[in-house]
# Entry
Amino acid sequence: MLKHFSDEEILAVVEENGACKENLLAILLKLQDLSPQNYIDERTANLVADRVGLSHVQMYDILTFYAMLETKPRGKYVIEVCNSAPCYASKSDRVVAVLEKELGIKVGETTPDGLFSVQYMPCNGYCDIGPVIRVQGRTHGNLTEEKIKEIIQNLRNA
Amino acid sequence: MSKSLSLLSKRAGKINPQSVEDYVSMGGFSALKKALTMEKMEIINEMLDANLLGRGGAAYPAGKKWKQLYNIEGEPKYIVCNADEGEPGTFKDKLLLKDDPMSIIEGMIIAGYVFNSQDGYIYIRGEYRIIQEKFKESLEACEKAGYLGDNICNSGYSFRIHVVSGAGAYVCGENSGLLNSIESKTGRPRVKPPHLAEVGLFSKPTLVNNVESFADVPLIVEMGGKAFAELGSEGDGGSKLVSICGNSVNRKVVEVGLGHVTLRDLIYDEEFGGGIADGKELKFYHLGGQSGPIGFPEQLDTPYTAKALKKEGLSVGSGALVVLDEDMCIIDYLLKVCEFFIHESCGKCTPCREGNRHVHNILTKFAKGTATEEDFERLERLSATMALASSCGLGQAACTALDSCLKHRRAEFEAHMRGECPVCFPKDKEGK
# Structure
């Protein structure tokens, strides 16, 4: 939740990214990035809707339609595992097994300390280095057990 | 002799993608300068001669699309580039967006000039956010150098390109869904007709082409439509970027002349796929993304071009080539494909929303070995219904891969009914 942000600060982000309808998804992704829990809360959603000229229900429709946008709190780091067929051929199920073991949670869950969430994502176009995960907009590929552990450790230390 | 081509990909990796100087030093913007001296109908005729089939996946002839829009009255007309590359296994547009963005920009400006447009939009998928930022830098550099913005190359013509972000929705790759998404609506496809050429973005006449199609435009203007057509084969002109991945030795984007290589070349040739990794055997391959057909080893000698592939029930589609080895069970694979469509179905129409779930249920029965003979009939009926009655291409094509497998590998389904599959029910190995 963007509770540390005042209404003015949220609206400033909207302005910075060009406060018009065609920039809506870019604005929402940016605000979601700023949220420590990686989601768009109701206050933020309504503020943006009012500013760009959408009804609140249209905004909710959009937030729940697009897979990259989330309306519920998630971990500080959202680890997304590609589960599309090309990564599956490159053994993405092993990546899931390592993540679940290392973090002690299942796909779709968040660690009790609120640090990590694990979820699936559809193909993000990095099939040349599959299996891949994406964390904070960055894609990591050619994953091995060691590499996954290292990524998690680096995030824990960050 | 090398079978690969280097036209679309000639600059990739060799220039700073955000430098106009680099782009121009390797032939960039010469097509734009030429186009600005040509009659608009002349450019469209070159596009028609080029036999360019749209590179997004639907393979609609680009020249025809241009001519249709040209004949439609109404202003303004919008130019939209579909960079919502979302077909799993496809990453060829990413190569252009990242390594040669100005070729796309140049193509869009030429299109803008033909239709006297003032504004172009490029809709780049949310997953490519880093690329979006770089693309904006490229646009700024072009504007600064006088190739974009007001009075392009002192021709009196002005054109601007706006970057719009997606946020993770495969269905927005469908052109009308994409336009809805730009208009800040949910990206559900529209009911057609009216076609986008008549009622497109903001209800105005609109041209929507794929990234690679736009990047082809400067090539066509420069070399002429006929020469471009000859790079390919009958009715399917030009070169094509193919993204090879899965269990092949090499996973990368390659460029080939359409019809000048076979599927075998693409999978086994050293300069392309390089064969199957870890010394395994090829089992099948998936062409054109999840909505494309599946091919088998006995079809490997088919030339990679629309007509020849169609004869085999195959297609180029988005240009994806996902190679699968002997360790992949066909039923298991189809379940993955089906899960993808369940996730991506927008839910508007019943055949797609419900159909995919039913297909999944039946495939699960096959996977568990509990399917019966009647389930074949159910699958075939479902697939036919979805192809016929779904509202947009997503639902219509969701069972394409299933159809290929039912046609060519019914025996593997039957073996599964008996609980026999070397991958899923191994006799002496630990199960999956």
About this structure: The domain at 20-230 of chain B is CATH 3.40.50.11540 (Rossmann fold). Chain B touches chain A through 54 residues (CB under 8 Å).
